[in-house]
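yo, 3-hydroxyacyl-CoA dehydrogenase is done. seq:
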Amino acid sequence: MSAKKIGVIGSGLIGRSFAMLFASAGYKVVIFDIEPAQTRAAKEDIREQLASLEKNGLLKGSLSRQQQFDNISTTENLEECVKNAFFIQECVPERLDIKRKVWAQVDKLVGDDVILSSSTSALLPSAISEGLTHKNRFIISHPTNPPFYCPAIEVVPAGWTDPDVIEKTFTVLKESGLVPVLIKKEVPGFVLNRIQYAIIGECYRLIKDGVVSPEDCDTIMSQGLGLRYAFMGPWETGYLNAEGMLSYGERYADMILDIQKSFGPPERIEGPTLQAIHASMERLAGPVQDIQKRRQWRDKRLIALAKLKRDLDAEDQAGK
Ligand SMILES: NC(=O)c1ccc[n+]([C@@H]2O[C@H](COP(=O)([O-])OP(=O)(O)OC[C@H]3O[C@@H](n4cnc5c(N)ncnc54)[C@H](O)[C@@H]3O)[C@@H](O)[C@H]2O)c1
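structure:
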């Protein structure tokens, strides 16, 4: 168990999650936020979240809830947050100007061996880090929300990132109960959002063209594709749906290509189609003013799924 220090900058939704994950691996986490009230709220929220994780048997790592909580402290001073940290996770709002400003400040406060990791969902690592003295130490670690129940995390180096930064980032993330995936080239949206937006694009077109209702479109995912995707990706799905991948190609490649050719160009989601989707989701998920209730409904299911996956993985391990 390591007692090394990690600095977390920004204590919103993602900063809090990272703090808890790193603390579960035994790291000493120091959180900084430009809004002191946010850091105070973060500490209280983390206390409640850890209690809920413990209640559901989903605490990560081997430390007790209290030990994990005690590993997290807050500061109102950026220098105190990053000083002597070997790893810094930035979780400030998704704006290039803010991220560049924060990293320019950090750049002046750190040594040459530190790892500078950003949570950005869509900004490219080269765009954020190009002006930094320590740009060779910069990397993106983009989590899936909520990171406690969805452990996949995209790791995106810039062309100038040192290889040891990639390796060490993988180690820290794995120790923290996450499942890192290397994105080998910088592309907008990385991989998760490119896949997600391809799905949204086609679902939007099918609704706009009157092929399916928004509710039924969601049913196809929640009662169909999504069930398999909770356990495997499209390639393993294909492999199992035929006698392996080559047989899948032989059987389905022409059909897939023909159907893909019928997809139209990208469209902006807006106007009457978007209004119709909103109205359908109000029927399906309840009115926006009650959205918190539906989020709890979602989280309950995500917790149950996380438990099921953990138990099945343990069974697999035991059977090996
Ligand atoms: N929310 C998600 O689903 C999600 C998923 C993956 C990645 N991300 C990424 O994580 C990052 C953070 O997102 P979030 O949802 O936690 O945002 P958030 O708005 O909940 O939190 C941002 C925090 O940063 C603080 N902040 C603003 N300027 C700052 C500064 N100069 N220095 C220090 N702190 C500052 C704010 O006070 C706030 O507490 C974004 O880049 C976002 O794209 C978000």
